[in-house]
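Blackboard transcription, Thursday session:
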Amino acid sequence: EPEVTQTPSHQVTQMGQEVILRCVPISNHLYFYWYRQILGQKVEFLVSFYNNEISEKSEIFDDQFSVERPDGSNFTLKIRSTKLEDSAMYFCASSGRQGGANQPQHFGDGTRLSIL
Amino acid sequence: GEDVEQSLFLSVREGDSSVINCTYTDSSSTYLYWYKQEPGAGLQLLTYIFSNMDMKQDQRLTVLLNKKDKHLSLRIADTQTGDSAIYFCAETPLSNTGKLIFGQGTTLQVKP
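(Written on the board underneath:)
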């Protein structure tokens, strides 16, 4: 069964450094998402992406965050200048197109980001 | 506003049924989902229900939706130790972006 794959599984970065988290969504999916889960807290929506542009973003997704689909397969999340509070598990998800955007999202295994 | 609430912990004996409950606030929800997260793993889609349905059954899983009370439940029949995990309820508000709003997750502990 097709999967969403995320790399790396664990990223350790110094505060203030830039970090790029990578995702390969399921190949025929058109909607892409990033979520994060701070340890012990809820999974929170960050951003959705469709047709090469952001379709919705949360308050968390400020100017330090950006997303890109640089080629036909990868979907990346960049944090420009990381803060301690960015430490979390980051999940990528994708969904197909049958009758609109509200189709079941399939998630990757996540990247654990640790900011020192 | 959009909010999803779940109880935090449920413990059952192997072979019993488990019922995990969820309440949500957004009456415009279109789909409601159950995801399973095993330790160190991602979110695995278990099942989902469209908001105009009352019930959906899929092998050992039964989802019940009470739209009037905004209450969703997941019943796992004949619970096995391999079912031990965190179960997340999630809803999709009526927007075209498909974002998911998650509950805080219910930890299911299955005792042998």
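Lecturer's comment: Residues 81 and 96 of chain B are 38 Å apart (CA to CA).
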